[in-house]
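Please, structure for the following, as tokens.
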Amino acid sequence: MTRLAGRTALITGASRGLGAAVARRFAAEGAQVVLLARTVGALEAVDDSIQQAGGLPATLVPLDLTQLETIDSLGPAIYERHGRLDILVGNAGVLGALAPVAASTPRAWHLTYTLHVLANARLIGTLDRLLRQSDAGRAIFVTDGAATEAITPFWGLYGTSKIALEYLVRTYAAEGVGPNVRVNLVDPGPMRTALRAKAFPGERRDSLPLPESVADLFVDLADPACARHGEIVKGNAKAFV
């Protein structure tokens, strides 16, 4: 299990849920993981689980991605610490306010679009050069088909921000990122996460698969042998019946 040996991977939103599951899976495949989230204690807990499983100690980056100006220094900092970046996983997300469009506040719109769209655009800006320098740069961003494939009342804020993210990422992929770089999105499907619990408070959590159920898909897309590019890749996570 060393498909990612010798590779350095940055995962945002890595303190819990899908981000933590992907971080542990990458580390199990031999990657040096850089974990980014707001909470130091939660990052340390993920790092502890990685090391207990035999993975390399993680680099912890306690950073609030809504503070956009702090993102620009991330690329130089990773280069100084590791000398390379091979994989970016843009996973950090927020549900935002589920409310009628007419009742959604400017603050809610700003927060959701900042995290889903502007922060990922800023990450691309600061990390693009490092990904191009890799022999197999891989950028993977997380979207949500539940919000983008159907018009659902009260989901306008979350859904439109994810559509904007999809357009942003697919445009980046189409702009000629170099022969060694692959850029894709993942729609993992319903999972047992805190965001899902907040969106569907009455749902039986034990009816949903764990985030670990789609972690292998991220390994496939991060693998140097991956040829997929500019796609929205569906996960296998489906509610159990």
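Residues 8-234 form a domain with the Rossmann fold fold (CATH 3.40.50.720). Residues 106-133 form the longest helix (28 residues).
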